[in-house]
């Protein structure tokens, strides 16, 4: 495990690289869900490196270890995470490659925005976990009330006061730069999510994305329904796609939810029996 610091575009990005003992079968970049720190993905990153993969995790600018000043001074939004941060990380991943494939392993937000990166054509395959559109009225029933409180009460009141979104204190999402929260709030209140809020040029990048997508829906996901996953996939029209349901029964578990797929308790079930197969590049 090696810490990497990247400083392109006057932005500080912290990455961690996990090298396999032998020649890498592929280079995998793990792209986090919104507000989730890269350390959350260390168990699966370490396990994948033991299976022969080079793995790179990172924090978007203003999240986790990618903070170089007080958070209220960081004005990054989500589009910049895609167009600047993902671009930088993909360039770094390419510099690590030795002719093996490059795989984008995306959790939630990581699969929503990757096509916006100008160099996303360097990806050979994308695997998404619980990645779909996030219109709040299309979310699962149990979180609609929480979403309403977040978008119409917690976010608009707390963010101007703190100068950033204090999600950790509110036990909602996590700390984030104010512009990122403002942008995400607008997306989640839009029927077609981010696709109602980007330019035609940016939408065209989704048309250009051609890497095969292996998508997984978690059947007890408390945030997204299967229709959310299908809606996102429809915005990648020119790629081979598959969508697979993962159920708690497949892991002899009481529940998986939106986040728990990445916990080590699932390494001999979901990781070995479902993820490894999805990582095979044709």
UniProtKB/TrEMBL annotation:
InterPro entries cross-referenced by the UniProt entry: AB_hydrolase_fold, Hydrolase_4, UCP037442_abhydr
Source superkingdom: Bacteria
Pfam family for this entry, one: Hydrolase_4
Domain Serine aminopeptidase S33 positions: 23-150
SUPFAM superfamilies attached to this UniProt entry: alpha/beta-Hydrolases
Coiled coil: none
Record-given protein name: Dehydrogenase
Organism: Idiomarina zobellii
């Amino acid at each position: 495990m090696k810490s990497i610091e990247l400083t392109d575009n006057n932005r500080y990005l912290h990455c961690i690289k996990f090298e396999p003992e032998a020649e890498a079968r592929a280079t995998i970049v793990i792209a986090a869900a919104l507000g989730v720190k890269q350390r959350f993905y260390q168990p699966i990153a370490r396990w994948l490196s033991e299976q022969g993969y080079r793995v790179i995790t990172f924090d978007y600018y203003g999240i986790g270890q990618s903070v170089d000043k007080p958070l209220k001074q960081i004005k990054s939004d989500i589009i910049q995470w895609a167009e600047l941060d993902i671009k930088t990380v993909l360039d770094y991943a390419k510099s690590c490659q030795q002719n093996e494939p490059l795989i984008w392993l995306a959790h939630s937000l990581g699969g929503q925005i990757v096509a916006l990166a100008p160099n996303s054509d360097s990806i050979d395959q994308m695997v998404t976990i619980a990645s779909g559109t996030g219109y709040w009225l299309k979310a699962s029933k149990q979180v609609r009330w929480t979403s309403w409180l977040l978008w119409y009460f917690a976010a608009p009141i707390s963010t101007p006061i703190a100068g950033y979104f204090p999600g950790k204190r509110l036990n909602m999402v996590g700390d984030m730069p104010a512009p990122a929260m403002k942008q995400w709030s607008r997306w989640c209140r839009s029927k077609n999510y981010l696709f109602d809020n980007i330019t035609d040029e940016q939408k065209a990048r989704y048309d250009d994305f051609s890497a095969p997508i292996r998508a997984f829906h978690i059947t007890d996901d408390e945030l997204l329904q299967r229709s959310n996953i299908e809606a996102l996939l429809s915005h990648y029209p020119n790629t081979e796609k598959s969508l697979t349901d993962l159920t708690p029964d497949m892991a002899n578990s009481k529940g998986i939810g939106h986040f728990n797929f990445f916990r080590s308790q699932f390494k001999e079930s979901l990781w070995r029996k479902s993820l490894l197969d999805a990582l095979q590049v044709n």
